[in-house]
Amino acid sequence: MIAKLYGRIDETGVDHLVIDVNGVGYLVQASARTLSALGKTDDFATVFTEMQVSENDMRLIGFATREERDWFRLLTGVQGVGGKVGLAILSAIEPADLALAIGSGDAAMVARANGVGPKLASRIVNELKDKVGALAGISGGAKLMATGAANGNHAQDAMSALANLGFKPGEAGTAVAQAVEELGPDASLDALVRLALKRASR
């Protein structure tokens, strides 16, 4: 299996790139986020890859980070999520925000991706909730999951308050997680929001 490629970006398209590795051009499908992160034609880049093989097709899917590739593997493990939908989700939602959405049960955020309806979004959230919590290495998944579960609804409300103040979901989730750790499960909503604001503004 090809796990990683390093070479010169020979060309890019809407959903793919060709990377030249010692004279061999590899066609790699990728999300819009990955294509933007890797660079432009003639730049050198490292692409983390996942190979998908079916009866009549074989393709390489590329990612700018191992984290994004790990998320792709998780997503495509859910029934109804193929490679195309997995890439659509990663194009629309950053890994940190995806961890927060799944941890807090926010299927509506997952449904923002093209090709993901409400039923599929709910299935993704339900099936991955425990898996994301067990994978601390994926975008702070365990930490964000703990935030959603700890302190009843106060953590959720605190994250919403920070989001309303303009913080990204990933930033809000991390800040509230830190506040929950410091203040404990019995902290008031007001105290959580105040401390989370301090942590998010660092």
From TrEMBL:
Cellular-component GO terms for this entry: cytoplasm; Holliday junction helicase complex; Holliday junction resolvase complex
The keyword Transferase belongs to this UniProt entry's keyword annotation: no
Localization per Swiss-Prot or TrEMBL: Cytoplasm
One GO biological process term: DNA repair
Domain DNA helicase Holliday junction RuvA type: 1-60
Domain Holliday junction DNA helicase RuvA C-terminal intervals: 154-200
Pfam families hit by this protein: HHH_5 (PF14520), RuvA_C (PF07499), RuvA_N (PF01330)
Spans annotated as Domain III: 150-202
Listed InterPro entries: DNA_helicase_Holl-junc_RuvA_I (IPR013849), NA-bd_OB-fold (IPR012340), RuvA (IPR000085), RuvA_2-like (IPR010994), RuvA_C (IPR011114), RuvA_C_sf (IPR036267)
GO molecular function: ATP binding; four-way junction DNA binding; four-way junction helicase activity
SUPFAM superfamilies assigned to the protein according to its UniProt record, in alphabetical order: DNA helicase RuvA subunit, C-terminal domain (SSF46929), Nucleic acid-binding proteins (SSF50249), RuvA domain 2-like (SSF47781)
Protein's job: The RuvA-RuvB-RuvC complex processes Holliday junction (HJ) DNA during genetic recombination and DNA repair, while the RuvA-RuvB complex plays an important role in the rescue of blocked DNA replication forks via replication fork reversal (RFR). RuvA specifically binds to HJ cruciform DNA, conferring on it an open structure. The RuvB hexamer acts as an ATP-dependent pump, pulling dsDNA into and through the RuvAB complex. HJ branch migration allows RuvC to scan DNA until it finds its consensus sequence, where it cleaves and resolves the cruciform DNA.
NCBIfam families named among the record's database cross-references: ruvA (TIGR00084)
Assembly and oligomerization: Homotetramer. Forms an RuvA(8)-RuvB(12)-Holliday junction (HJ) complex. HJ DNA is sandwiched between 2 RuvA tetramers; dsDNA enters through RuvA and exits via RuvB. An RuvB hexamer assembles on each DNA strand where it exits the tetramer. Each RuvB hexamer is contacted by two RuvA subunits (via domain III) on 2 adjacent RuvB subunits; this complex drives branch migration. In the full resolvosome a probable DNA-RuvA(4)-RuvB(12)-RuvC(2) complex forms which resolves the HJ.
The protein's name in its UniProt record: Holliday junction branch migration complex subunit RuvA
Organism: Sphingorhabdus wooponensis
Source lineage: Bacteria, Pseudomonadati, Pseudomonadota, Alphaproteobacteria, Sphingomonadales
This protein's encoding gene: ruvA
